[in-house]
Design goal:
Structural class: alpha/beta
Strand order of the largest sheet: 1-3-2-4-5
Largest sheet: 5 strands, parallel
Strand content: 5-15%
Helix content: 40-55%
Order of helices and strands: HHHHHHEEHHEHHEHEHEHEHEHEH
Bound molecules: iron/sulfur cluster
Number of domains: 3
């Protein structure tokens, strides 16, 4: 930092933001024993917390941007330090003072795409509903059973559009009266908030809330655990409360109510990956497994780290937008764990996990060894053989 006055200001800001949460830390180091970074490099959340306590953090380094907000350290910490919130506050200061290491620079492009088009993928707002072309999908109207909110990646990314389309095929097959809001909605804002951009998060969130209220939305179905988390746990900060359902919960409900009938066998060995924002952050472990267990012929096996101990894919906390060198990717380790179970398919329920796993599948040359699927893609196959995808 060139200017001494600025430096003093930053130290004060760190102390102020860190507050009591940082001070509760007694440096036991348990966070470092569970953090997935320590499988690939040397990284210490304990050190970040200690330095922040004294206002001595170097906010210009890569370290404060590494955290994927997987939640493992928060789950393990005996002193309720809330490491994710703490690291977010450091990112907030770095954002405010525009101090970014090179690896974080792509986020500037992401920010401008989110601000102008409402999505992080540099796609046009008007094409937000193009994924639904040729399918029986209506615009949401008041009185409909549920609003389907696919999120940004299933709306625009060619691989993830298949998930949105599979979801629609399932909803239509179950006779659910649903609609979408296409270009009227934005990114949920979860990941950009984790990069410390509170202002942009508020803009995206209030835009969505206005669209939901204007259309009389009460219940929202989401594909992404990140949308689930932020709609359910963070939008109430704006004094609103919508009923939020993740697709794994909804499939469980539709099957149990007899609205969705499984008609075909799926004779494969599969393993299920718990996305951090569905499992650790929201406690949804059983519904996806119960849904998969209802499929005749399907053999469900568990990986070395599953449920509360699930290994993060590496995509949370805004890391999905940052370049991670090949030998530092958690998704490579996860694929290895999946292959070690003897499973033919790795099934999950999060667009970020699928993106990272598909990348690793290519770079690790696992194309003939393992398939990556969203849970909706499995269920679509067993409810009918001829739906359009
Ligand atoms: S686990 Fe909690 S108390 Fe222990 S070092 Fe980490 S942040 Fe501090
Ligand atoms: S939230 Fe996860 S990635 Fe971040 S420091 Fe904790 S254990 Fe490591």
């Amino acid at each position: 930092m060139e200017n001494v006055a600025d430096y003093k200001e930053i130290i004060d800001a760190i102390k102020e933001e860190g507050g009591d949460a940082f001070k509760r830390c007694y440096q036991c180091g348990l966070c470092d024993t569970v953090c997935p970074w320590n499988n690939v490099i040397k990284f210490s959340m304990r050190k970040i917390v200690r330095e922040a306590t004294f206002g001595m953090s170097d906010i210009g380094t890569e370290d404060i941007w590494r955290c994927t907000s997987c939640g493992k350290c928060v789950q393990r910490c005996p002193r309720d330090v809330q490491q994710i919130t703490s690291v977010m506050s450091l990112r907030k200061i770095a954002t405010e003072y525009k101090v970014f290491p090179t690896s974080v620079r792509p986020i500037r492009t992401i920010r401008s795409s989110l601000a102008s088009e409402g999505n992080p993928l540099n796609e046009k707002r008007e094409s937000r509903a193009d994924w639904a072309e040729g399918l029986d999908v209506k615009t949401f109207e008041e009185g409909m059973e549920i609003l389907y909110f696919p999120g940004c990646y299933p709306s625009y990314d060619p691989r993830l559009k298949k998930v949105a389309r599979a979801t629609v095929n399932i909803l239509n097959r179950a006779g659910v009266e649903f609609g979408i809001l296409g270009p009227e909605v934005n990114c949920c804002g979860e990941s950009i908030r984790k990069t410390g951009d509170e202002e942009l998060f508020k803009r995206l969130a209030t835009g969505n809330i206005k669209a939901f209220i204007d259309h009389g939305v009460k219940k929202i179905l989401v594909s992404s655990p990140h949308c689930y988390h932020t709609f359910k746990n963070e939008y109430p900060e704006f004094m609103v409360n919508f009923e939020i359902v993740h697709i794994t919960q909804y499939l469980f409900e539709l099957i149990n109510e007899g609205r969705l009938k499984i008609k075909k066998e799926f004779a494969k060995k599969i393993t299920y990956h718990d996305p951090c924002y569905l499992g650790r952050h929201n406690g949804i472990y059983d519904e996806p497994r119960e849904v998969l267990k209802k499929v005749p012929g399907l053999e469900l096996v568990e990986m070395a780290e599953s449920r509360e101990d699930s290994l993060c894919c590496g995509g949370g906390g805004g890391r999905i937008w940052m370049e991670t060198p090949k030998n530092e990717r958690f998704s490579d380790l996860r694929l290895k764990q999946a292959v070690d179970t003897g499973a033919e398919e790795l099934v999950t329920a999060c667009p970020y996990c699928i993106t990272n796993f598909e990348d690793s599948r290519l770079t690790m040359e696992y194309e003939d060894v393992l398939k990556i699927k969203d849970i909706t893609e499995v269920i679509q196959e067993v409810i009918s053989g001829n739906e359009e995808t």
